Structure formats: structure tokens, C-alpha cells
Amino acid sequence: EVQLVESGGGLVQPGGSLRLSCAASGFTFSSYSMNWVRQAPGTGLEWVSYISSSSSTIYYADSVKGRFTISRDNAKNSLSLQMNSLRAEDTAVYYCATDKGTYTQDSYYYYMDVWGKGTTVTVSS
Amino acid sequence: DIQMTQSPSSLSASVGDRVTITCRASQSISSYLNWYQQKPGEAPKLLIYAASSLQSGVPSRFSGSGSGTDFTLTISSLQPEDFATYYCQQSFSTSRYTFGQGTELEIK
After folding, report:
1. Min Cα–Cα distance to chain B from A47, Å
2. Which of A14, A41, A52, B69 could form an S-S bond across to A57 if both were Cys, CB 3.0 to 4.6 Å?
3. Is residue A5 predicted with pLDDT exceeding 90?
């Protein structure tokens, strides 16, 4: 069964740090780019970060650039998000999701087709 | 960044209704548009990719159309399990994915 399982969420004080993990199983993790997406309470989805299959390409949303670091360990089928200098506005459910590409209509199209159930991060004093 | 705007923000409909949700991009994104469904307390689920391609396992009552800046998600005959929030997402800008604000579909 294709599965992503996030862990590492919790309550942290403003200015603190937290490291999220995402364990992959049931598919060839090393072949897929990955994303982190978050959802603040009662709001919509916000893309946070992207990492290519070989870690050669990494992107961040402006809201987390310089504070968050995405990484992966293909040998361990694991994705991570190191979050530093946390703010109240980082409070959210954090999801990891695969970034799949399919060739159709004469181009490659990318989408997030497998999602974990999420881990909750609360930044509060 | 490419802004994605969905309309309406919320919608009330009945089982059996035909429903259309619209997503507009702030610039042309060709067909790099995906649709997701999210139910309360659950992760998003991919419905449509590349504007009109139905994800495997998704019922055929869901369809997507559009290209450039204007896109639609249509549910041909609403079922009880379709009441959820729907999000569009652009993948044209691979360094800056963005989602629409969501459309909450409620039971009338």
C-alpha cells in the first residue's frame, strides 16, 4: 500500500524549533519529488516547500524561506522539514505529498497524488 | 506569484444537482491546473490533473475543463459523499505552487 506518514508535530514556543518527518512506503521513494503543504486552522492549503528526487532542486515559499529547511534520505525513504524561528502564523497541519509528473497533451504535468494524514504544529507561549 | 481565485467561496446544493466551480489564474498557466477534494479532518485528495485528466479511481461524475486563465470543475450529479471543500492548484510555476482559497460545497 502506498503510504506517507508524518510525525514530529507538537507544541513549541515562538522562536523555537521543530523537525517534521515523513516516512514513505509502498512506492519507489527515490524516484519522486516531494512537497510539504500546510493548512492553518480554518483556512486553505498553502504550499511550503519542494525537493526533487535527488535533492538537487529545492524551493520554498517566501513565508518560510530562511527559516525552514527541507531534506530527504532516499536510503531511509524519509523526508524532513527542519523548522526554526517558529512564529504563531506557522501553526498548522503539515502534510507531505508526492510530486508526480505525467506526460499527457504533449507536455509533462505535475500534481500531488499521494498525501499523508498530516501532523499538527502549534506555536504558542 | 501566480494568484488563483476560486468562485464561489461557498455553495449550497442538493443531491443530484449539477455543480460547477470556477478557478481563475492571474496569468496564463496553459493546462497546468489540478483539483483536489478535502473532507473535514482528512488530507486532500487529487481529483483532476492537467485541467481535464481524471485521476485513477475518481468517479466519472467529476470533470474538469479550461486552459489559459479560466478553469472549471463540474460534478454532474452530486452524491452525499461529494460534500466537501474543493481546491484548485497551479503547477505552471514549479518553484511556487499556489492553491485557490477553496470552495466549500454544502448540503442545501
Report:
1. 6
2. A52
3. yes
Give the rounded distance of the alpha carbon of B51 from its chain centre. Answer: 9
Is B52 strand, coil or helix?
A: coil
**pLDDT at residue number A104:** 85
Residue A8 to chain B, least CA–CA distance (Å):
17
Quick one: which of B98, B72, B97, B79 has its CA closest to B39?
B79
Determine phi and psi for B24, rounding to 5 degrees.
-120, 135
Phi, psi of A5 (to 5 degrees): -130, 115
In a 10 Å sphere around its CB, with 0-12 CB exposed, 13-18 middle and 19+ buried, how is residue A48 labelled? buried
Q: Dihedrals φ, ψ of A71, to 5°? A: -155, 170
Contact B99 A46 (CB under 8 A): yes
Element (DSSP H or E) covering residue B47: strand B45-49
Strands B85-90 and A3-7 come out as unpaired
Residue A19 pLDDT exceeds 90: yes
A107/B49 Cβ within 8 A: no
Instruction: Determine whether the interchain pair B31/A111 forms a contact, defined as Cβ–Cβ distance below 8 Å.
Output: no
Given a cut of 70, the residues of chain B with pLDDT beneath it are none
The residue ranges of DSSP E strands in A32-89, in sequence order, are 33-39, 45-51, 58-60, 68-73, 78-83
* Distance between B78 CA and the closest CA of chain A, angstroms: 23
Q: Do A102 and B97 touch (CB under 8 A)?
A: no
pLDDT value of residue B94 = 83
